[in-house]
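Practice problem: predict the structure.
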Amino acid sequence: FIDRGIKDIGMIAGKEQTTTEKLGVRDPRVATFDSYLKQKGLYNPNFIFQGPFGPDSGYALMTKAIQKLGDKLPHGFMIGSDSMAVGVLRALQQNKIDVPSRVSLISFNDVAIAKYTSPALTTVHVHTELMGERAIEMLDQRMKEPKKIPELTVIATELMERESSL
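Answer:
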């Protein structure tokens, strides 16, 4: 967004609960979003909306953002998941807010349906199959060598640019 001139960036994020639903689980995407925008001097806490993961929540959170912010609605939104983004798109369309010319969207997960929404979602592809393979390999290695020093493995993501972002 920043490289394309969008400086007002919001986030529609999922918020998970512990099994007892007393404690919220901090999404690392939200923490990274907050930290990065603070570094760039672009952070605005009024542009962050959180709720359960899913399309209904995405719809409700974007509707709330539209009502609360009006003309100050950010020009870019990071969305916590593709399923939330489906609801976000619906809320924007019902309020006659054009995607991507007025609001650009980038979501996470790159589920199969993402390329079939209208407009098609720009999304971050997470290599979940590779993550699973590495986890099994590491577990197997750990079982063979229990005293081996643990390692951290980072698997990169990939931005799948489609129609929902400029």
